[in-house]
Amino acid sequence: MKIELKEDIGFSAAHFVIGHKKCEHLHGHNWRVGVTVEGEEDDRGLVVDFLELGHMMRKICEAYDHRLLLPEKNSGLKHTEDGKITKVSACGREYEFPTEDIVWLPVLNITVEELARVVIDEVAKELSKYPNVRKITVFVEELPGESATEERNIRG
Ligand SMILES: [Zn+2]
User: Fold this and answer.
1) How far is the CA of 23 from the centre of ligand 1 (A)?
2) Average pLDDT over residues 133-148
3) Residue 94 maps to a domain
4) Which pLDDT score, from 0 to 100, does residue 4 have?
5) Domain range for 57
6) Predicted model pTM
7) Is residue 120 part of a domain?
């Protein structure tokens, strides 16, 4: 059985894409996130309780909401942190941001593809506690019609 949750989950965040002519300018999106979970139904007839799944997805997204997302693994981005201020240099531009407004992600660039992978890592960690869950799919949409989907087998 496969269940799907795709309404009212997402986050608003700023980013730029290093090495992309247009998207290297700082800008933001209302990213939308969806998840599907496949597995056997438990003795209540549920794969995963939608309430629990929704709570889990919102908690994951909350960490990125109203933040600037920056990639940890891009050599084209340099930064220095001085307490409350982080100075960032990338794409020939210099920025200063409040350190607390930045979320560093273990990716090469903040793209919809990389975000789908980061989010599915979080979802996989949470859902590994459920012995009946076999496969998950995470969908991240940046603009209407522009999305990335990542699948992961949890077991089996
Ligand atoms: Zn963008």
Assistant:
1) 6
2) 97
3) no
4) 98
5) 2-67+108-153
6) 0.94
7) yes
